[in-house]
Amino acid sequence: MLSLPSCSISTKLREAPHEPFAIKSTPRKTPLLIFSHRHHTGLVLPRQALEDELPELTSELTRDWLEFGWGDEGFYRSEEVTLSLAFRAMAYPTPGVMHVATSSRPLHYDYAYCPVHLFHLTEEQREILVQGIARQFSSDENGHLQLLGPGRYGDSRFYRARARFFFPWTCNAWTSSHLRSIGYDVHAITAPGLFHQLDELVDGSQVAD
After folding, report:
1. DSSP line for 161-183
2. Which of 16, 45, 52, 193 sits at 20 to 30 Å (Cα–Cα) from 135?
3. Could you count the other beta carbons within 10 Å of the beta carbon of residue 4?
4. Nearest-angstrom CA–CA distance, 52 and 68
5. Euclidean distance between the first and the last CA atom of the chain, given in angstroms as a whole number
6. How far, in Å, CA of 4 to CA of 10, rounded?
7. Could you give the dihedral angle defined by the CA atoms of residues 186, 2, 12 and 117, in that order, rounded to the nearest 10 degrees?
8. What is the C-alpha to C-alpha distance for residues 90 and 6, in angstroms, rounded to an integer?
9. What is the pLDDT of residues 57-100, one digit of tens each?
10. Which phi-psi region, left, alpha or beta, contains residue 127 (left: φ > 0; alpha: ψ -120 to 50)?
11. Measured between alpha carbons, how far is 34 from 39 in angstroms, rounded to an integer?
């Protein structure tokens, strides 16, 4: 039950690490990785794909890849999961945060045992997705992103988000909404639910590649 406020039911880790991913990065194809860290899902894009829409972020986080996640601020940033945090996140609209991690390692290293799906976006899909992500960040009166502090792992940071968290609008619903914006028919509030739907899309060849 305590996993519900952050993102609900967990996916299982892989038993063996991934082989290197077949990544294509061209002006017409932008790689997009959807990952699951147990109950949490998010999106990974090349930093260069976000330079126009998020110049402040990409000038500060300069490694090759940017990972985006969203969730309840109190729950996401807490070192200890408690019943009071869980109840508050489920019962009331609470402040949301964006978590951004950056890395230059090959993706199959950073997500070795995580369930993932790798898609390649058209330029139109990339523009829609990146503009949608950029709108998630709250800005101060001077138009700057609102940095809240270090993130949960590696080279990462928390930023104030515009949207408030409320159940059942979980991080998995957040991820699903961005995928729907670029034409993927997914609707899920749990990580297993989202990855089951992504599996079906891939099996049905209903993705850009």
Report:
1. BSSPBBTTB-HHHHHHHHHHHTT
2. 193
3. 18
4. 17
5. 37
6. 10
7. 30
8. 9
9. 999 999 999 999 998 887 676 655 555 555 555 556 688 999 99
10. alpha
11. 13
